[in-house]
Amino acid sequence: xxxxxxxxxxxxxxxxxxxxxxxxxxxxxxxxxxxxxxxxxxxxxxxxxxxxxxxxxxxxxxxxxxxxxxxxxxxxxxxxxxxxxxxxxxxxxxxxxxxxxxxxxxxxxxxxxxxxxxxxxxxxxxxxxxxxxxxxxxxxxxxxxxxxxxxxxxxxxxxxxxxxxxxxxxxxxxxxxxxxxxxxxxxxxxxxxxxxxxxxxxxxxxxxxxxxxxxxxxxxxxxxxxxxxxxxxxxxxxxxxxxxxxxxxxxxxxxxxxxxxxxxxxxxxxxxxxxxxxxxxxxxxxxxxxxxxx
Length: 294
Description:
Number of helices: 10
Strand content: 25-35%
Shape: globular
Radius of gyration: 19 Å
Distance between the termini: 32 Å
Largest sheet: 7 strands, mixed
Oligomer: single chain
Number of domains: 2
CATH architecture of the largest domain: 2-Layer Sandwich
Structural class: alpha+beta
Helix content: 25-40%
CATH topology of the largest domain: Ribosomal Protein S5, domain 2
């Protein structure tokens, strides 16, 4: 079998509500998730022992191969699929790590898609979905890699007809540990952040044919509950949000996930490109990407 290839697109949380913390310690979330046109690339050379090599501008940030989520996902799937064909993975790493855009989760999801292809597994095979959940909270949504409303602990997905949204993504090259942000949020096991009234008033998202302007207004009415605690953990996130909010033509600026990556939405590609150039010149040490979400 020739080498198989897939892309691991960055995940962006356009909104993120923390509903509460379960008695088992996991947090219940409600999030509108989109995917960006920036991605890592993963190749699987089928056959032989399971292995992972890394290259690309972010390769040094990947850590030990044995701790990588690609390897973790492959091993978990191998425990559930007898005679699973594996092989050597090659990861071309471009996305920042510990950045709130699911880089590692997207890599693991791409690995599961490649292994499914190599072994003739259906995309909705229950073992794939189980492994995705066990590998990490963002892996199930990255396995789908399409716009949706994500609820629960990331395991319940409702597809959304999101239009193409021109955007600028910025990461200050400061890793942020998700556990530190949730610790700063400070919820006890079994504690709720929202009441039944809040749940009943949850936003109704626009229909599939809704215009960009309608969607941006709806998203602007949302929040990211992790923004404030993340800024306490890494104050530079506040600087990024201020810089994005000051750009010409910006419609919405918000943090993704638990940070530190933030995004800004625009009405058109030209304005987004000009904004990215401006912020890149003002902050050359930051990672900046101009593109689109959908």
